[in-house]
Amino acid sequence: MSSSMWRNCLQRLQSELSVTEFNTWIKPLQVRETDKEMALFAPNPFFVDWIRQQYLDRITEFVTSKEDSNQMHISLHVGNAQIAESASTQGTNNTTQASTKPTVNHIASTPVNNNRSNASSNFPQNNLNNKFTFNNFVEGKSNQLARAAAEQVAENPGISYNPLLIYGGVGLGKTHLMHSVGNLILKDKPDSKIVYLHSERFMANMVKALQSNSMDAFKNYYRSVDALLIDDIQFFANKGRTQEEFFHTFNNLIEKNKQVIITCDRYPKEIEGLEERLKSRFGWGLTVAIEPPDLETRVAILMSKANQSNIELPHEVAFFIAKRIRSNVRELEGALKRVIANAQFTGRSITLDFVKDALKDLIAAQDKLISIDNIQKTVATYYKIKVSDLLSKRRSRSITRPRQMAMTLAKKLTNHSLPEIGDAFGGRDHTTVLHACRKIDELKSESVDIEEDYSNLLRTLST
Ligand SMILES: Nc1ncnc2c1ncn2[C@@H]1O[C@H](COP(=O)(O)OP(=O)(O)OP(=O)(O)O)[C@@H](O)[C@H]1O
Question: How high is the ipTM of this complex?
Answer without folding.
Answer: 0.98
